[in-house]
């Protein structure tokens, strides 16, 4: 499903840009796809094999970059699709990387901390032959954490015999992680939204689907900037408050109760109702396929921001575009995360570390520039914003591929 959506988006964009045959060919298959067994000695003494993957989809613009996912539903096909997506995302935000992705078929919640460490070190031993600071640089994704990045970095350093922080990003600060990385995805999305609001005049009433890492920081940043959060949800349900949520109180309730729908004085709503609220901006920060052909006609927001990956299906996309509901697509809206990962890698290679303000200013400059580059294509080619972002990315990948390969 995920790869089908990515392919559909690619085909749509290709109608608006002439690619060299070399580019078309090299985008058809991943450059490398590694599938390997990870033997892990469990705490009870038995040996268990886990299936690990690493895919380097395309490296026309630089070393491949992308997270590692720990989830029972991981498959090689999904990892390939996500690696393709990273190729587009890195090109949209114009960082010198190609796209990669990794994963392990595992429910990490069923492992002890020691088992998780052995699994993570085992993943790195399996992937080390294609990973490297100038080859392929992993990062966290679903259910992988800075601690896991630290174990993997340490394992890689043991393999190559030197301290090698630049092999992986999303590390703890003590091991070369970047200041600002923890909320970079939300901050990038915030900068993009602020630019969008300058172009598409909309009001300040917002709703956030998915009060997790990305969604909560985004809610905080927008409230601090004068927006009113009237709707919010997490996996347990949603809440509506016409006068607007107080961020501090909302965060406290989420920490204490593990849910947002018990906010005092707010009306409980379902996750579906949250998507249908009469708001100016809807932030999608939960899961893929939240807005589909079945519910798109009920979505009233004038602007939708995809902090999650793939929250709007292609058929829903077409409807929203026809209705002039503006979308900031995932490959642009959530690219702040990989952008600050790139900053982390640069700092590691230099051995020189920036202040949080430095990081955030550099991120703002990137987001503003690439939002406007995408918006210009949206206007000049009269396409939707997602197609515009793909056209921008494909143009950059095409240029690099031609310079490398064309006779
Ligand atoms: P997270 O697990 O911290 O948060 C996800 C939130 O969504 C949780 O609060 C969960 O309760 C909620 N949720 C789940 N199902 C829901 C539903 N049906 N309705 C409403 N809420 C629901 O994850 P995150 O790191 O914030 O990531 C969210 C999305 O953003 C994912 O798609 C992720 O791939 C994408 N993303 C995150 C980053 C990052 O740096 N964190 C970077 C790029 C993309």
Automatic annotation (TrEMBL):
The record marks 141 as: Important for catalysis. GO terms for biological process: L-glutamate catabolic process. Keywords: NAD, Nucleotide-binding, Oxidoreductase. One of its GO terms (molecular function) is nucleotide binding. InterPro entries: Aminoacid_DH-like_N_sf, Glu/Leu/Phe/Val/Trp_DH, Glu/Leu/Phe/Val/Trp_DH_C, Glu/Leu/Phe/Val/Trp_DH_dimer, Glu/Leu/Phe/Val_DH_AS, Glu_DH, NAD(P)-bd_dom_sf, NAD_bind_Glu_DH. Pfam families: ELFV_dehydrog, ELFV_dehydrog_N. Substrate binds at residues 65, 89, 341. The keyword Membrane does not apply. CDD domains: NAD_bind_1_Glu_DH. SMART domains: ELFV_dehydrog (SM00839). NAD(+) binds at residues 185, 213. Residues 178-405 form the Glutamate/phenylalanine/leucine/valine/L-tryptophan dehydrogenase C-terminal domain. The active site is at residue 101. Homohexamer. Belongs to the Glu/Leu/Phe/Val dehydrogenases family. This is Glutamate dehydrogenase.
């Amino acid at each position: 499903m995920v790869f089908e959506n990515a392919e559909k988006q690619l085909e749509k964009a290709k109608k608006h840009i002439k690619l060299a045959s070399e580019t078309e060919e090299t985008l058809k298959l991943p450059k490398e796809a590694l599938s390997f067994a990870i033997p892990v000695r469990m705490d009870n003494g038995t040996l268990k094999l886990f299936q690990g993957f690493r895919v380097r989809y395309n490296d026309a613009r630089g070393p491949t970059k992308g997270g590692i996912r720990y989830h029972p539903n991981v498959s090689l096909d999904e990892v390939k699709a996500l690696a393709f997506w990273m190729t587009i995302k890195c090109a949209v935000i114009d960082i010198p990387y190609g796209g990669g992705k990794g994963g392990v078929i595992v429910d990490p919640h069923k492992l002890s901390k020691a088992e998780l460490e052995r699994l993570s070190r085992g993943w790195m031993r399996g992937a080390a032959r294609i990973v490297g600071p100038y080859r392929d640089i992993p990062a966290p994704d679903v259910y992988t954490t800075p601690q896991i990045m630290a174990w993997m970095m340490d394992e890689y350093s043991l393999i190559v015999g030197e301290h090698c922080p630049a092999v992986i990003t999303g590390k703890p600060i003590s091991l070369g992680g970047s200041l600002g990385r923890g909320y970079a995805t939300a901050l990038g999305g915030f900068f993009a939204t602020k630019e969008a609001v300058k172009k598409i005049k909309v009001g300040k009433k917002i709703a956030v689907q998915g009060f997790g890492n990305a969604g909560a920081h985004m809610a905080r940043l927008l409230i601090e900037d004068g927006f009113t959060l009237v709707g919010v949800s997490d996996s347990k349900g949603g809440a509506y408050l016409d006068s607007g949520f107080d961020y501090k109180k909302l965060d406290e309730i989420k920490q204490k109760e593990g849910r947002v729908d018990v906010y005092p004085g707010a009306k409980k709503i379902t996750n579906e109702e949250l998507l249908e609220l009469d708001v100016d901006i809807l932030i999608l920060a939960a899961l893929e396929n939240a807005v589909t052909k079945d519910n798109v006609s009920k979505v009233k927001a004038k602007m939708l921001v995809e902090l999650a990956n793939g929250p709007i299906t292609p058929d829903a996309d077409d409807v929203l575009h026809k209705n002039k509901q503006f979308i900031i697509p995932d490959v642009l809206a959530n690219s702040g995360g990989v952008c600050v990962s790139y900053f982390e890698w640069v700092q590691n290679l230099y051995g020189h570390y920036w202040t949080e303000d430095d990081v955030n200013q550099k991120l703002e400059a990137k987001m503003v520039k690439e939002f406007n580059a995408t918006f210009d294509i949206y206007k000049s080619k009269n396409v939707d914003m997602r197609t515009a972002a793909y056209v921008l990315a494909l143009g950059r990948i095409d240029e690099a591929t031609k310079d490398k390969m064309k006779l």
